[in-house]
Amino acid sequence: MTGMALAAEWIKMRTMRGAVWALVATAVLAVGFSALIGASMRGSYDDMSRERQEDFDALAMSSFGIVMAQLAVVVFAILVIGSEYSSGTIRASLLAIPRRGHFFTAKILAAVLPVAALGIVVVPVSFVVAQAALGPYGVSFGAEGVPRLLVGGWLYMTLMALFALGLTTVLRSPARALGLMLPLFFLGSQGLGNVPVVGAVAQYLPDQAGAVILHMAGPPEDMKFDRDFGPWAGVGILGLWAAVALAAGYRVLGRRDA
């Protein structure tokens, strides 16, 4: 039954232009911003002070594109489930697949499989493009920390998609989900992280927790940043957010009428 439900989801997805374009935008943002940031930093490197040059992290240049691409990933995951509520097709979908566990599993797979497959390609390509744009200041695949960055970038994109799907199911509206997630992740949490008292809590938000493995923030031993956990712990926190959101989404889907 889940296989049939997933096949139905593929058909729905092909008819949702917004979802398809969100996947295209994911690739464009990831690669495009990696190239832009890499080229910009290459041009300004020689003008940096010696102290800033010593602190320069070539790996972080590959992550700016991934951070920007999460916008499109979130939009895609929201559309996968949210379009059912905005269009009213959720009623027909649940009539066709009355077992809501099968329906929700199909939705999860429909959201995570395209993002995971795209991430396998986009994350290493973004790395190559950023390092090429950095020229003599870039690093190769053999540099320390690169494998962790690539795996972490892939996990970051995939887990953000799952979190967005679960939260949208709880809210039962793509407009509400977009109105909450986009300002929080792309404006709120970044700003909150700079407030000393609030930052101690904001560091545990999904995007901020994942930032450590992306080299956008640092572990406890790195005094440049104020994170209380390391990279893999950050991924674990993000994974916990995704798991809680999915569990809450399943509960709402099971207890409320369409």
Number of helices: 12
Low-confidence runs: none
**Beta-strand percentage?**
under 5%
The major pleated sheet works out as: none
The total strand number stands at 0
Percentage of residues assigned to helices:
over 70%
Secondary structure class reads mainly alpha
Terminal-residue CA separation: 20 Å
The average pLDDT score comes to 84
Task: Report on this structure.
- There is one protein chain.
- This protein has 258 residues and is mainly alpha-helical.
- It has one domain (2-174, 194-255).
- Helix content is 78%, strand content 0%.
- The chain is built from twelve helices and no strands.
- The protein has helices spanning 2-15, 17-45, 50-55, 58-61, 63-87, 90-96, 100-134, 146-171, 174-192, 196-202, 206-210, 231-255.
- The mean pLDDT is 84.
Q: Topology, please?
A:
Elements (H helix, E strand, L loop, with lengths): L1 H14 L1 H29 L4 H6 L2 H4 L1 H25 L2 H7 L3 H35 L11 H26 L2 H19 L3 H7 L3 H5 L20 H25 L3
Helix pairs in contact: 1-7, 2-5, 2-7, 5-7, 5-8, 5-9, 7-8, 8-9, 8-12
Features:
258 residues; mainly alpha; single chain
The gist of it:
78% of the residues lie in helices and 0% in strands.
